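Hi support team,

I submitted a single chain yesterday and got back a structure, but I'm not sure I'm reading the token output correctly. Could someone confirm the output below corresponds to the sequence I sent? I've pasted both exactly as they appear in my results page.

Thanks,
R.
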Amino acid sequence: GAGAGLLIAAIGAAVGALALKPLPPPNPAPVVRMAISSPAGAFSVSPSMAFSPDGTQLAFITRSQLYLRNLNSLDVKVLGPAGNYPFFSSDGKWIGFFLDGRMKKIPVTGGVSQNISDISITGPGASWGPDDMIYYPVSGISGLSKIPASGGTPQPVTTLERDKGEISHRWPQILPGGKAVLFTAWTGPGADERHTHLQVLETGERRVIAQGAEMGRYVPSGHIVYFQSGKLTAIPFDLASLKTTGSPMPLPEAVRKGSEGPPFALSVDGALAYLPRNSDPVFQVVWVDQKGRIENFSLPPRTYDNAVLSP
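Hi R., thanks for writing in. Yes, this is the structure output for that exact sequence:
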């Protein structure tokens, strides 16, 4: 609900400690935690927050507004009506988001939002690359495409591997240097059917980073952080070879689960913004007929999502 705060924690020190380096840094940065209360309306339960490229600003969406907060200030700026899936331009001057079936952008200084494309685009997720191209899924049942940030004709980037059961590519992140894109490949709605993949853009080569893992995000400590089995996990990753270099390590933060993906964001300096697990909503599973009549299941109230019927 609206009272449930968005939390920020510094995980750089935690990731460094878990990496089992021979010598710890002489003056490790202290872990800092802070909570941000929703200015109005509950936070969106989808991944609804993003750090600026320099880590000094946080964009987040409630069910009523798109906000921007400088982390060195207590003030929160309203940028516009609520949308979905905010993302920053690579130069930090724009925030992109999805609203009413359109991909839009708005200056971080405020103003009128602009359509990037008049084609219906619903995401989920997008990444604004250093080539000034935006990488995104057209819908929840498509591969990834790219489009110039100034507008233009979309071009396909990834192809669903139907023979392997893929139904969706989501949550892209262009890696530093712009040579590869990290994304989540869905083979079904279950948590164990979401997999973190990487594709080399020049060759189209696909690599599996982690099975049963979603929302993979590279951080400059040399790790990819993803959500797996209800926990955030970090795996060492070499940016030069674009390959993992060690074993996965669980992180201590308890992040809320979301139907479209866990609501968290990572900054370049190792800050983690997330909705805590103790804010998970509780639902009752019911049947609703065409006349609006409700019939309860004999299931206890829990944090259900992604209900599907067998054939």
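A quick pointer for reading it: The helical segments are 12-18. Let us know if anything else looks off.

Best,
Support desk
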